[in-house]
Amino acid sequence: MPRSIWSGAISFGLVTVPIHVVGATEDHSIRFHRYHLADQGRIRTRKVCELEDREVRSDEIGKGYELTSTQVVPITDEDLRELPLPTAKAIEIVAFVPLASVDPIRIGDGYYLQPDGQVAAKPYKLLRQALARSAKVAVARYAWSGRERLGLLRVRGEAIVLHAMRWPDEIRDPSSLTPPPVEVSEDEIDGALALMDTMTREDLEGDEFRDAYTEAVAELIEAKREHREPEAAPEPEERPGQVLDLMAALQESVSKAKESRGEDDHAEVRELPGRMKKAAAKKTPAAKTSKAAAKEPAGKKPAAKKTAAKKAAARGPRNA
């Protein structure tokens, strides 16, 4: 059972739900220590006072705000706990919005909200069911670690999840990253959509969503522990250089995506979308002529030749 990170209450109008906040995710990354190469002694970071030039204990360390290089305003944890904020001990819901209206870049880490005792069970379930039935999320304010934050509450299974959110002014303007003006044709968009269709999945299960890097690091550590060579890395797939023909690249990507899914139907892969067919027909008028000729019944002459024959018969035979 994960430990409680924070205790307080959800404030929902006049309804109060006592809760504990617990971590919703786990970090399975393999972590390394720094050590001395000569004797494998641990290298640690020591906390040293710059003025006294000595290492200090944790109980000698406080925090403060530096006004100038020589003046610091000390701030204690008690000072922060006693701030005159309604969100200091509560997650205060301020609005309900559709999830689609929230830019994903503003959504951060997730935490489970656990009801605190029997008294919280009913209001907790009421809020969870109301959120689930409305298909909306709640936006709330709360104060953690010395600052007020914005949060998003949503339903996951039988639990309510709190996601930390970034304030609007914390999101950088991406306009400076916009590429130079360029034209994208409808045919290219259709090709990209066709590729998206072949790569569409119903879930995120499978080898493609496995943490292969962590597994490889674990295998490397085990191999070194057993004094053997780790498994050889697979040869990387050859990739073409600069793509000059975007449509050809899209078509080839569709083909590879279908092959990887066991759909070995090359005729269907090479079928052009509707707009692409029209563009190809415009570029090849000879093909139009051949198609029109193919529609004429067998043994039937074109209309122009029939008219010329009738005129010649009306004039009669020519004089030698």
Question: How would you describe this structure to a colleague?
Answer:
It is a single chain. By secondary structure, the protein is of the alpha+beta class. It is built from nine helices and eleven strands. β1 and β2 form a beta hairpin. The longest helix is centred in the C-terminal third of the chain and has 15 residues. The radius of gyration is 35 Å and the shape is extended. It starts with a strand and ends in a 5-residue tail after the last helix. The C terminus is likely disordered.
Write the layout of secondary structure elements.
Blueprint: E1 4-12, E2 15-23, E3 48-49, E4 54-55, E5 63-68, E6 71-75, H1 77-81, E7 90-98, E8 107-115, H2 121-134, E9 136-144, E10 147-156, E11 159-165, H3 186-198, H4 212-225, H5 246-260, H6 266-269, H7 274-283, H8 285-295, H9 303-315
Parallel strand pairs: 1-7
Antiparallel strand pairs: 1-2, 2-8, 3-4, 5-6, 7-9, 8-11, 9-10, 10-11
Helix pairs in contact: 3-5
Radius of gyration: 35 Å
Mean pLDDT: 79
Strand percentage lies at 15-25%
Shape descriptor reads extended
The run of helices and strands is EEEEEEHEEHEEEHHHHHHH
Give the N-to-C terminal Cα separation.
114 Å
Main sheet: strand order: 1-2-8-11-10-9-7
Stretches where pLDDT is under 50 for at least 5 consecutive residues are: 266-273, 275-320
Question: Treating each run of at least 4 consecutive H or I residues as one helix, how many helices?
Answer: 9
Determine the structural class based on helices, strands and strand pairing.
alpha+beta
Biggest sheet layout? 7 strands, mixed, barrel
Number of strands: 11
Report helical residue fraction.
25-40%
